[in-house]
Structures are given as C-alpha cells and as structure tokens.
Design a protein that fits this description.
Helix content is 38%, strand content 25%. It has a four-stranded mixed β-sheet. Strands 1-2 form a two-stranded antiparallel ribbon. Helix 4 links the parallel strand 5 and strand 6.
C-alpha cells in the first residue's frame, strides 16, 4: 500500500493499545500522508491525556455478569481471567481480596489468581496510581509475604 504509513513496532503491549486507541480518534481515510501530522498530533494528545490522568471513560464503574466493577479495565481483566479459567490456565480466582492494615484500614486487591502451575498472583488493575494506593500497596507488601502486580 503505497502512500500509507503503518507503525509496526511497539515497545510494550500498552504502547500498542495506546496507538490503537489513538487510531480510533481519526477515520481511516484521514490517516493518509497528507493528514499524517493531524493523526500523529491526535495520538500524542491522547497519550498526554493518559499520562496526566485525563479520563477516557475507562475509569467509569461498569457491570459484567451482574458484578459491579470500579472500571471497564477491571471488568475486561475479569473477562480475561474467565477465559483463562475455561482454557485451563487458571484454576480459580478471587475478587476484592482484603488485607488488614494498621489503624483499622483495609486494602482490597482486585484479584487473587491461582494458576494450574501452582503459582498465585495478587493483581491490581490500575488506570492511575494515587498516592493513597501507593502507600497502601507499600504497607501490604511490607506486612504480608506478597507482591502486588499492577496491570
């Protein structure tokens, strides 16, 4: 396809998703070289919004299978875990796993995943890390023999 530019290299899966989200902002016809600067500017603005924490709607509460989730991203991760469970990769998983912290504070991890291989992971689905979240995560990891993975 002569005259079209496609970016085929991403440094991470997140970069690929950011590019795809930015691509959705501009119709396919407008991605031609004459409009490439407009496309790249829109992509850059989209990424800047993500870095600054400007909402793209993925942080809105949503419901899946009758379960309320704090964000679309968390609901999507839940669906991925269901598929992994059906595929026999995940044995089972728990939601909103509580950790008691000093001062009567409770931290809730989004998922605890038990893999068929015997591995157990604590997963927190995050769009933006708040100071409160960072402090609670550090306390949990200091008080309990766990590492919380962020997706």
């Amino acid at each position: 396809m002569m005259g079209e530019v496609q970016i085929m290299f991403w440094t991470s899966q997140e970069d690929k998703i950011r590019y795809q989200k930015a691509s959705e902002l501009i119709p396919t016809a407008d991605r031609k070289p004459a409009n490439l600067s407009v496309f790249l500017r829109a992509a850059a603005n989209k990424m800047a919004d993500e870095l600054l924490g400007v909402s793209d709607g993925s942080d809105k509460p949503t419901e899946c299978d009758g379960i309320k989730f704090a964000s679309k991203k968390e609901a999507n991760y839940y669906r991925q875990l269901q598929m992994a469970q059906k595929a026999g990769i995940v044995l089972f998983f728990l939601r909103q796993v509580p950790f008691s912290l000093p001062g009567g504070v409770t931290y809730r991890c989004d998922f605890q995943v038990f893999y068929v291989s015997g591995e157990v992971y604590f997963i927190d689905v995050k769009g933006m890390k708040t100071k409160e979240y960072i402090a609670k995560k550090k306390m949990v990891e200091a008080l309990y023999p766990v590492t919380i993975r962020e997706v």
